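Chapter summary example: a protein plus 2-amino-3-ketobutyric acid.
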Amino acid sequence: MKNILVIGATGQIGSELTMKLRGIYGDGNVVCGYIPSAAPKGALLESGPAEVVDITNPGQIAEVVKKHNVDSIYNLAALLSAVAEAKPQLAWAIGVGGLYNTLEVARENGCGVFTPSSIGSFGSTTPHVKTPQDTIQRPDTIYGVTKVTGELLSDYYAKRFGVDTRSVRFPGLISYTTPPGGGTTDYAVDIYYSAVKGEKFKCPLKPGTYMDMMYMPDALRAAVEIMEADPSRLVHRNSFNIASMSFDPEIICNKIKEYVPGFEMEYELDPLRQHIADSWPDSLDDSCAREEWDWKPEYDLDTMTQDMLVNLRKKFNIE
Ligand code: AKB
C-alpha cells in the first residue's frame, strides 16, 4: 500500500487528484498538504489527513514525510503561467526551489516523486505542430523556465541518486470542479461558465490560437498511471508529452453552440496571454507516452463539452 503526500493539494489539480488518490489507495493513506492561506474544506479536509506543508520549507516537508511514512510525493505546488510572469521570483522559489527541497527529502527518505511539467516548457523556437517528445525547449516565460529546469533536475535525481521521478507535460486542463487561477489556457474553462450562465464570453485570445487541452479526468488518470507504470518500459521519465485534443477559440465556441444555441463570444485580447499562447505548441505528439506506458485519453472535445455543461448546470442549479 502506498503512503502519499500531495503538496499543493488544495489547488486546481491537487484538490481533485487528492480525492482520486484517496479513492484508489485509501483515505487514510493520502495526506493533503496545504499552505495556511489555502486551507482545505469539505470532503478534502474531512476524508483524510491534512498537514501544513510549505514547499519552500524543507524541514516541514521532511517532518510530514516521516510522520506519515510517505513513499510517494505528488508535487503540485506552482504558479500558473500568467501569474508567474507577474511574480517571477516567487515562481522560481516555488517551481525550482520547492522542487529541489522535495527531491532532497525524497532522496533522504526513499520516496518517488511526480511533478507535472507543461506545454509551457516549450517556446517559440519549438516545432509547433505535433511537437515531438524530444525537441527544442527554450521557453519565453519564467513558468516555462521553471518547468524545463524541473524536468532536468528530476531526471538528474533519477540518474544520479536513483530517486523514482516521473512526470507528464500537462496541456491546458478543463474542469467544472475547482476554477483555475492565472493560466494562459484558462479561457477554455471560463467559456463554459459563461455558456451555462447565459453570458456573452469575452475571449482573451484571438482566432487561430491553437493549444492542446485535456479534460481533468484524463489528466488525473495520467498522473496515477505514470506513477504506476512498469519502470522497465520507461525510456523517458521527465516529462512525457500527453495529448487528447487541440482547438482554437472558434472551434470550442462552435462546439458549445451545438448544445447552447444562443451562446455568443466576442474578442477582448489580453496581450500577455496572447504572447504566451503564441509561443506554445499548437498540438503535441504523445506517441512515447502511448508506447512506454499505454497512455490513451478517453475524452474528446464533444464528450468533454457535454459533460462540462451537464455538471456546471448542476453546480449552479440551472435547468
Ligand atoms: C497555464 O495555462 O499556465 C497552464 C499550463 C498549460 O501549464 N494551464
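Key point: The two ends are 43 Å apart (CA to CA).
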